[in-house]
Amino acid sequence: MSRSAHPAGPRHADVLPEGHWSAPPADLNHLDQRIWSRTVGRNGDGAAEVAGMDVRDLAAEFGTPAYVLDEADFRARCRAWRAAFGPDADVFYAGKAFLSRAVVKWLYEEGLNLDVCSGTELAVALDAGMPAARIALHGNNKTTAEIERAVTAGVGRIVLDSFQEIVRVADVARRHGVRQKVQIRVTVGVEAHTHEFIATAHEDQKFGLALADGQAAEAVRRVLMLEDLELIGIHSHIGSQIFDTAGFEVAARRVVSLLAAIRDEHGVELPEIDLGGGLGIAYTPEDDPRDPHEIAKALGEIVARECEAARLTPPRLSVEPGRAIVGPTTFTLYEVGTVKPLEGLRTYVSVDGGMSDNIRTALYDAEYSVALVSRTSDAAPMLSRVVGKHCESGDIVVRDAFLPADLAPGDLIAVPATGAYCRSMASNYNHALRPPVVAVADGQAKVIVRRETEEDLLRLDVG
Ligand code: LLP
Q: Where does this protein hold substrate (predicted)?
């Protein structure tokens, strides 16, 4: 069967939406180090390898689809964040991006703390041995059971998100005879988007207590009156996949102003501030993320400057990166099932997964890259859309990409930068079995989250 290769040129510009890649990359076989984890490359056969493991062997042993996580890359990113922020700050990995017991162990060993946002994330963290004092509990609607579990485990902080929760956490703490350390999550009025931020625009959402309308100050008053709560600081999280440090700087300035106002009103200087997560990563070569050193420098400087102006002792800083640590460590390995050229449009490449293992494209219009990884190819670039096997036309993994025109069923392709919010947001749509997470390091592969089985699903279906 001859497949039509859509040559580069005006035709691509016609069918590619504005802002997406308008021309094929010079070398389709190249695995760009800005997007792929650090031990990924091609071996002598032309197949991709990661940590010395050939992807064809990984597919044969673990099946597809599979998330393949580069442990050395994960650990290196943890170390980079720790080094960037130094001993006077804490780095809390945001477990919502991807959490498993192995990940908790790596975080512990690399000196990171952990942010969890549900009782079950907390259970995983505790089960894997993360000391409770290094755990922060988040959430805009924590149940009393979740609060009980956190308080009795002795978590280092609970981040309060509403007036009701202040009372709820204080009640639980009192019942257990604990003075619980808490922070108050405030909304600073910064709306952070991928490439921009709009100041004073984002009070209209479910998280936190607003600075602008005085709710944050009121929450501080209420917490300070409660003996069972120890207010250790103020928390702000402005958004996700952010490339510009300016939004963080505005947030830092506003949080420090609140600390000064608290000092003036109550005579107390809170010892900590947390500026949340949100640092963006590269999903395509067009993304240009900041590195942790840049963000640490920018935040450190602004906090120091604002504190000096307000004559405050600089608080201990913490941050909560999720995506920036785990996102780039992982690629999803798929097998191509069908290749369907649509004359004059593009070629639909169907893989053996889809929106059940990566909902981000359908949900956020997220952009991803993709490469043929079981071999190299000199064929012409073919404008492609990588789609899944689900019964929905929005089941798109990579909206616009160039793959070689000789792509055929049985080829392995991989989508990089899927470590964050893909396995953690995976679903069983169409009774898909959620793929495993295979960690690779030093020529060894280890399943850290196994593939779901039919038995797993049938066990839940109790008739
Ligand atoms: N801290 C707090 C309080 C958060 O709410 C979040 C993310 C983080 C830290 C970590 O943010 P990160 O560094 O990973 O951007 N599902 C979406 C992302 C939702 C993020 C929710 N909160 C996605 O797939 O893009």
A: 323, 360, 364, 392, 421
How large is the average pLDDT for residues 364-371?
A: 96
The number of beta carbons lying within 10 Å of the beta carbon of residue 335 is: 18
Encoding tokens for residue 389?
A: 């096997």
Hey, what domains does the chain have and what are their CATH numbers? 40-70+328-460 (2.40.37.10), 138-321 (3.20.20.10)
Q: Does the CB atom of residue 277 touch ligand 1 within 6 A?
A: yes
Residues 408/400, Cβ–Cβ less than 8 Å: no
87 is in an annotated binding site: no
pTM tops 0.90, yes or no: yes
Please choose from 78, 90, 96, 159 the residue to mutate so as to test ligand 1's pocket, defined by most ligand atoms within 8 A of CB.
96
Q: Is the CB of 94 under 6 A from ligand 1?
A: yes
Q: Is 307 a catalytic residue?
A: no
What number of residues does the chain have?
Answer: 463
215-274 confidence digits (pLDDT tens): 999 999 999 999 999 999 999 999 999 988 888 889 999 999 999 999 999 999 999 999
